[in-house]
Amino acid sequence: MPTELRPLGVTCNIQCHYCYQNAQREAGNMGGNYDISKMLQTVDQVGMEFTLFGGEPLLLPLEDLERIWAWGKERFGKNSVQTNGTLITKEHIDLFKKYNVTVGISIDGDGELNDVRWCGNLEKTRTATSKTMSNIELLCESGIYPGIIVTLHRFNASKSRLPRLLLWLECLDELELKSCRVHLLEVETPMQRQLLALTADENIQSLLELYRLERELHHLKFDIFQEMRALLLGLDNKTTCIWNACDPMTTRAVQGVEGDGTMSNCGRVNKDGVDFSKASEQGYERYIGLYYASQEKNGCNGCRFFLMCKGQCPGTAIDNDWRNRSEQCSIWMRLFEEIESDLITQGYNPLSQHAVRAILERYLVQEWTKGANPNLLRLFLHSSATSYEREVMHAYLVENNISHKWSQGKLAHLDHHWEGE
Predict the structure, then answer these.
(1) Gap between the Cα atoms of 357 and 380, Å rounded
(2) Residue 239 and residue 252: Cα distance in Å, rounded?
(3) Which of 167, 157, 245 has its CA nearest to residue 205?
(4) Is residue 115 in a domain?
C-alpha cells in the first residue's frame, strides 16, 4: 500500500460520528502545521508512492496541492488522494488530470444513508452528501472514475435501509465505477456500538447481499470478496493490510508521513487519542500468540481460515487489545465459508480444505519468530521443506491451476528450486 501523506493531520471539514480519528481530535492531537519540503524528503527516503490523506486533504490550498502532486508525478509517475468528496472543484479536477491523480471517495450512500458523515446539522449534512454525489458524477464525466469506500452501519445497512444501499450501488455501477472498498464499522466507544454498530448477524446479511449483488453488476467490484477469494487460493501478493499480519507497533503496510516529516503508524491502531511513535523493528508476537491461543481465550488455534485471515486487523481486536483476534471474527468466518463453498463448487480445492495448509502454517509461524512475514509464494519456496511437503505443495498448485496466475516461469522456478537442493 502507498505511504499516507498527512499534511493536515486529522483536520477535517466534517465530523463523521464513527471516525477512528475522533479520539485524536478530542485529545487535541489534530496536526495542521506542515512543511512540504520535509514531508517530500521523508517520502523520497521511504521510496514508496504516496496517497494524500487526512482528515480531509483537499483543505490544502490549490498551490500546495499542485506542488505536492507535481513532485509525485516526477518521482513516481502518479499520485492518489482519499477525500470525502465535498470540496472537489473544477480546479481540483484539472489538477487530477494534469498530475495523474487517482481519486478515492469515502461516502456511505446517498441521502439519509450518509447521515453519519455529519456536518453539524441535518441540512448541512444532506447538502454535503448531495455535493459529493454531484462530484462523483462530475469526475466520471471528466473521465476520472473514483474508487469508493463504504462503511457499513445502522444508518445504511440495517434491514430497512439495506435495499436502498444496494440500489445506490447499482447506480454507481451504471456510472461505470470499478472499485468499492467495504469497511465494517470499527467500534471505538460503547456509545458508537449502541447507536451505530450492526449486530454480527446484520453484518453477515449485509455482506452476503453485497456478494450476491456483485454477480449482477457489470463494472463495480467489492474488494473484500476479490481478496478473500484470492486468499483462499493462496494468491495473497496483492491483498490489503488487514489480511497480512500487521504489526500494530510498525504497521508496515501503512507508512504515515506527518506534516513535519516524521513517520507515523496507521491511525486505526491509535487508541485513546494517542498517536503512538513508530517502533524501529517489526514484530509478530500478536500472530504467534493467536496461532497458539485457544479461540476461547480470544485466539485462533484450530481455525482453518487462520492462514488467510491471521486474526484480521489489530485495530478491531476484541476489547481494543491488539493481542486478541478481531471482534469481527464470526463475520469473516461466515463469509470465508460462503466463498470457500463457491470455490469448491467451481472445482477448486481451497487452502482451507487442503493438506498443504498445515505445512504453510507451520512455516509461516517459524518465519514470524525470525521477524519475517513472507507471502505464501515465499512459503512455497521454503528451504526446509521435505520431499513429502514439496509433493503436497506442488500438488496443490497443479490441482488449482495456480501457475498461470503468477508471472511466467514461477512454477518452473519452484521445480528448479526443489530439484537443486
Answers:
(1) 11
(2) 14
(3) 157
(4) yes
Is residue 240 included in any domain, yes or no? yes
Q: Look at residues 217, 151, 246, 373 and name the one whose alpha carbon lies nearest to residue 226.
A: 217
Examine residue 341 and state whether it is found in any structural domain, yes or no.
no
Going from the C-alpha of 75 to that of each of 40, 43, 49, 71, the distances in angstroms are 10, 10, 8, 6
Number of CB atoms found within 10 A of residue 15's CB: 14
For residues 338-346, give the mean pLDDT: 96
Which CA distances in Å does 144 have to 36, 63, 140, 176?
Answer: 26, 21, 5, 10
Domain that holds residue 86: 3-269
pLDDT interval class at 104 (50, 70, 90):
very high
d(CA 263, CA 322): 21
Helical axes 356-369 vs 387-399, angle rounded to 10°: 120
Rounded Cα distance, 345 and 349, in Å: 9
Q: What is the CATH number of the domain that holds 241?
A: 3.20.20.70
Mean pLDDT of the chain: 89
pLDDT recorded at residue 95: 98
Contact (CB, 8 A) for 24 and 273: yes
Measured between alpha carbons, how far is 104 from 146 in angstroms, rounded to an integer? 5
State how many domains the chain has: 1
Cell of 189: 466507544
Whether residue 186 lies inside any domain: the answer is yes
Cα-to-chain-centroid distance, residue 115: 23
356 pLDDT more than 60: yes
For 253-270, letters b (16+ CB in 10 Å) and e give: bbbbbbbebeebbbbbbb
| Nearest alpha-carbon partner for 267 in 17, 8, 11, 20 | 20
The phi, psi pair for 317, rounded to 5°, reads -65, 150
